[in-house]
């Protein structure tokens, strides 16, 4: 795409994103700052392919969301995980098991290759799953279609659930105002730490952990200016939406109906777990759904910051599951890939 055409494309994307965000905000749709840019990027990318955001925008977006979540997690993540580790472990295991079964089913039906099926079905950070899939040798483009299709399903499901419950936006924080300076230090530290650990997909979790540690140590609470939040949410939404201009367009379109159906099934299974969580422990339905939802960690974090929910519980559950996926994902993908290769050789014979 020529520079002039790119400039026009970015201008159109910016204008449509602003308009969509305003409409969603007026309608009272939660996570309007994410949904507006995300849907606009999907539409614009279909007409004007070639718009690509640099890698640093994803890192910046994750760092900002990490600061927002850290500020919302009064008391910190560690106490929640330590006090309720059997519960969080069970939640992580149930979601990963459901994801693995669905991924295996997609591979058995020949919808996608085995490694793509596993990584595309695994819950966790959407960007992290794509990066890990690419490192594992899977087709990252097809994984991205699966992951982000599920993110969209989960985002709209959470929005619909919040609207049906009459949940409005989260109340503005009171008391400790926090510090923009601390937010800057925490964000930079998270980016540097993830870079040093060669874990670019871990920027959100590391930033969140550092922010929580700062709060526990009495150093200060990060405070992100609203304008910075808008920019970060917009960049994340654009990155998700623009991913749908995959070069593997034909394959993506062929598999999309079954992938979307699989996403709905997985979301429904997680909804059953959320219902059990609500009935057994009295956790409000919206918090239970976000804690168990198979969407990306980034999108769940953004939605949680926009709604009156138990953010520490949600992020503790999501973080526990993300860590479990980081451990079981690679061997599970390797096992399924080997099984698929053996099955292919048997079929040839």
From TrEMBL:
The chain crosses the membrane at residues 12-35, 55-73, 85-106, 112-133, 145-165, 177-197, 204-221, 227-247, 259-281, 319-337. The lineage of its organism: Bacteria, Pseudomonadati, Pseudomonadota, Alphaproteobacteria, Sphingomonadales. GO terms for biological process: regulation of gene expression. It comes from the Bacteria. Keywords: Membrane, Transmembrane, Transmembrane helix. InterPro entries: AbrB_dup, AbrB_fam. This is Ammonia monooxygenase. GO terms for cellular component: membrane.
